[in-house]
């Protein structure tokens, strides 16, 4: 549970209010009514009956993002955008005229009264995010509601004409000589590279074997959550799929499995989220401890293997919130995180990577002659990164740097793998569009993209803007080590000349079975070989695009993919 969700409650309060009264009240009248409710809270400590009645009509699934609010199809988008604009104006005025404690109190009361979360969870989440919110409101020269709503509710068409949300980076035209097809299938040979892909580790440093899986909080099995109500509710040794993250010995066993089962590992990709889901209880020091511990375990168990890691949205405290590099106020800056990974990951990365890591958590490195890795911090692109509202244009110049780096790679005849935690279709619309422009321009340089975040084992295909049927790239998602996502990691066979992905395998174990035998390492097994199951010649863009057509007409094959 994050403050983003609590603020969404406030936005939806006005949204539903507008929906109910759309024919009789203007946006200004509705804004004034809600502001009156907040002012009455200052005097009485309670919301007005009108405001409470409105909030109680908010479907919880809508407020927490699992099911969008849907008034009539004729009014849905306009109602949401109108309500959002009014709500943002109210919140800005309230923050400007009240102390931090007063703002905390009103949002905390909303959280307690209108969600199912405990005082502990509400207070923790709000306390973590509030400083960033207040800083942005007080220090952003121009913060129109249209910008905020255009980011938060971009899927509803809000503020598409807001100028600050429309920007682009400089990308030159694709040279004619570069318009060749390197997406053809390669022949797997003995010289192919082996890449391990792990993502969304989510290590809980206070996971308790035998702990409470029925804790009533967003994440369970922690030592501070009391005893389980019965033996059946006790957390397993290796982890538990009832809303729990993983103990350290689970991660250690995963590394031991990787080392034993894959003798010739060339590289390891880790696409973010070292840190657990206890987002109401995070701190800078706790997150430093988790990131440091996971990094050190990789160094200790696989000392001769190069690891290319990137940050996930859970690494900062609070989660999702990555401040621009020029924000130096220690209460809201992300500088501590960039300094941490610049030091911890230096054993795997070239010295010149430090400069861009300190600027924004991204880097590039030559993995071998002719083959380059680019590690992005694309967590900045999400609509849940509050700093998007401060300045939505290409935070820290990362996309422009990406385009410039790929141009140099093209000139040097290099092929590139891009690593980033967030799949690009989950980014703010403009950021996603500009990233797609880059992939389109450098389709013959970028041979694969690797993501995490979704906890699902799937792939996304990129298509050319000018030729919508022409597949230009593939992004592979690695799944997760989290038990309720079916603990897994993936391996990739990569052509050692073209650096196209030839094949992938997924490895997993049965958590229920493993928990019957504590202290005996789990029995990992290969879930699939992609080539064997789906009959593709390789996993290039061309081959994967062909597969999608087969999946559309072959239900048996589609079932194999989706199971």
From TrEMBL:
<comment type="function">
    <text>Converts sphingomyelin to ceramide.</text>
</comment>
<dbReference type="GO" id="GO:0005764">
    <property type="term" value="C:lysosome"/>
</dbReference>
<dbReference type="InterPro" id="IPR029052">
    <property type="entry name" value="Metallo-depent_PP-like"/>
</dbReference>
<feature type="binding site">
    <location>
        <position position="421"/>
    </location>
    <ligand>
        <name>Zn(2+) 2</name>
    </ligand>
</feature>
<dbReference type="InterPro" id="IPR008139">
    <property type="entry name" value="SaposinB_dom"/>
</dbReference>
<dbReference type="InterPro" id="IPR011001">
    <property type="entry name" value="Saposin-like"/>
</dbReference>
<protein>
    <recommendedName>
        <fullName>Sphingomyelin phosphodiesterase</fullName>
        <ecNumber>3.1.4.12</ecNumber>
    </recommendedName>
</protein>
<feature type="binding site">
    <location>
        <position position="313"/>
    </location>
    <ligand>
        <name>Zn(2+) 2</name>
    </ligand>
</feature>
<comment type="similarity">
    <text>Belongs to the acid sphingomyelinase family.</text>
</comment>
<keyword id="KW-0479">Metal-binding</keyword>
<feature type="disulfide bond">
    <location>
        <begin position="215"/>
        <end position="220"/>
    </location>
</feature>
<dbReference type="InterPro" id="IPR004843">
    <property type="entry name" value="Calcineurin-like_PHP"/>
</dbReference>
<dbReference type="GO" id="GO:0016798">
    <property type="term" value="F:hydrolase activity, acting on glycosyl bonds"/>
</dbReference>
<dbReference type="InterPro" id="IPR041805">
    <property type="entry name" value="ASMase/PPN1_MPP"/>
</dbReference>
<keyword id="KW-0732">Signal</keyword>
<dbReference type="GO" id="GO:0005615">
    <property type="term" value="C:extracellular space"/>
</dbReference>
<feature type="binding site">
    <location>
        <position position="202"/>
    </location>
    <ligand>
        <name>Zn(2+) 1</name>
    </ligand>
</feature>
<keyword id="KW-0964">Secreted</keyword>
<feature type="binding site">
    <location>
        <position position="273"/>
    </location>
    <ligand>
        <name>Zn(2+) 1</name>
    </ligand>
</feature>
<dbReference type="GO" id="GO:0046872">
    <property type="term" value="F:metal ion binding"/>
</dbReference>
<keyword id="KW-0326">Glycosidase</keyword>
<dbReference type="GO" id="GO:0046513">
    <property type="term" value="P:ceramide biosynthetic process"/>
</dbReference>
<feature type="disulfide bond">
    <location>
        <begin position="111"/>
        <end position="122"/>
    </location>
</feature>
<dbReference type="GO" id="GO:0061750">
    <property type="term" value="F:acid sphingomyelin phosphodiesterase activity"/>
</dbReference>
<feature type="disulfide bond">
    <location>
        <begin position="381"/>
        <end position="427"/>
    </location>
</feature>
<feature type="disulfide bond">
    <location>
        <begin position="221"/>
        <end position="244"/>
    </location>
</feature>
<keyword id="KW-0325">Glycoprotein</keyword>
<keyword id="KW-0378">Hydrolase</keyword>
<dbReference type="Pfam" id="PF00149">
    <property type="entry name" value="Metallophos"/>
</dbReference>
<feature type="domain" description="Saposin B-type">
    <location>
        <begin position="77"/>
        <end position="162"/>
    </location>
</feature>
<dbReference type="GO" id="GO:0006685">
    <property type="term" value="P:sphingomyelin catabolic process"/>
</dbReference>
<dbReference type="GO" id="GO:0016020">
    <property type="term" value="C:membrane"/>
</dbReference>
<keyword id="KW-0862">Zinc</keyword>
<dbReference type="InterPro" id="IPR011160">
    <property type="entry name" value="Sphingomy_PDE"/>
</dbReference>
<feature type="binding site">
    <location>
        <position position="200"/>
    </location>
    <ligand>
        <name>Zn(2+) 1</name>
    </ligand>
</feature>
<feature type="binding site">
    <location>
        <position position="273"/>
    </location>
    <ligand>
        <name>Zn(2+) 2</name>
    </ligand>
</feature>
<feature type="binding site">
    <location>
        <position position="453"/>
    </location>
    <ligand>
        <name>Zn(2+) 2</name>
    </ligand>
</feature>
<feature type="binding site">
    <location>
        <position position="455"/>
    </location>
    <ligand>
        <name>Zn(2+) 1</name>
    </ligand>
</feature>
<keyword id="KW-1015">Disulfide bond</keyword>
């Amino acid at each position: 549970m994050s403050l983003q969700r609590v603020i969404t409650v406030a936005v939806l309060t006005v949204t539903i209010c507008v929906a109910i009264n759309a024919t009789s009240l203007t946006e200004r009248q509705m804004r004034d009514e809600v502001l009156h409710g907040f002012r009455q809270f200052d005097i009485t400590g309670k919301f007005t009956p009108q405001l409470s009645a409105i909030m109680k009509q908010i479907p919880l699934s809508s407020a927490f993002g699992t099911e969008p609010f849907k008034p009539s199809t004729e009014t849905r988008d306009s109602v949401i955008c109108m309500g959002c604009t009014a709500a943002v104006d109210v919140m800005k005025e309230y923050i400007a005229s009240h102390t931090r404690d007063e703002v905390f109190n009103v949002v905390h009361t909303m959280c307690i009264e209108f969600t199912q979360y405990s005082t502990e969870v509400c207070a923790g989440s709000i306390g973590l995010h509030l400083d960033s919110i207040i800083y942005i409101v007080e220090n952003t020269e121009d913060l129109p509601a249209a910008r905020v709503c255009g980011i938060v509710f971009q899927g509803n068409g809000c503020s598409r004409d807001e100028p600050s949300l429309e920007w682009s980076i400089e990308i030159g035209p694709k040279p004619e000589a570069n318009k060749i097809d390197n997406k053809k299938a390669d022949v797997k040979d003995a010289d192919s590279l082996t890449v391990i892909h792990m993502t969304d580790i989510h290590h809980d440093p206070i996971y308790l074997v035998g702990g409470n899986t029925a804790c009533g909080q967003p994440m369970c099995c922690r030592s501070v959550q009391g005893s389980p109500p019965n033996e059946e509710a006790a957390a397993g040794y290796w982890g538990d799929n009832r809303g729990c993250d993983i103990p350290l010995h689970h991660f250690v066993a995963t590394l031991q499995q990787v080392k034993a089962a894959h003798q010739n590992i060339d590289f390891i990709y880790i696409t973010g989220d070292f840190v657990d889901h206890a987002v109401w209880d995070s701190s800078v020091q706790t997150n430093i401890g988790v990131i440091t511990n996971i990094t050190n375990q990789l160094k200790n168990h696989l000392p001769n293997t190069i690891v290319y890691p990137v940050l996930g949205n859970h690494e900062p405290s609070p989660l999702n919130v990555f401040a621009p590099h020029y924000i130096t106020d220690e209460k809201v800056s992300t500088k501590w995180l960039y300094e941490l990974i610049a030091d911890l990951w230096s054993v795997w990365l070239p010295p010149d990577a430090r400069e861009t890591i300190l600027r924004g958590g991204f880097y590039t490195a030559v993995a071998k002659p002719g083959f380059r890795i680019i590690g992005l911090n694309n967590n900045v692109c999400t609509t849940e990164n509050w700093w998007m509202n401060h300045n939505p244009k290409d935070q820290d110049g990362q996309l422009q740097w990406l385009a410039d780096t790929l141009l140099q790679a093209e000139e040097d005849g290099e092929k590139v793998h891009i690593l980033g935690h967030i799949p690009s279709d989950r980014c703010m619309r403009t950021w996603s569009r500009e990233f797609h422009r880059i992939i389109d321009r450098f389709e013959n340089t970028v041979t694969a993209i690797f993501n995490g975040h979704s906890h699902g084992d799937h792939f996304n295909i990129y298509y050319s803007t000018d030729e919508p049927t022409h597949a230009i790239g593939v992004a592979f998602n690695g799944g997760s080590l989290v038990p309720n996502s079916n603990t897994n990691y993936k391996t990739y066979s990569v052509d050692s000349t073209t650096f196209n992905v030839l094949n992938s395998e997924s490895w997993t174990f049965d958590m229920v079975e493993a928990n019957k035998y504590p202290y005996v390492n789990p029995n990992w097994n290969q879930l699939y070989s992609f080539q064997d199951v789906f009959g593709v010649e390789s996993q290039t863009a061309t081959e994967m695009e062909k597969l999608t057509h087969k999946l559309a007409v072959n239900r048996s094959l589609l079932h194999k993919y989706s199971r």
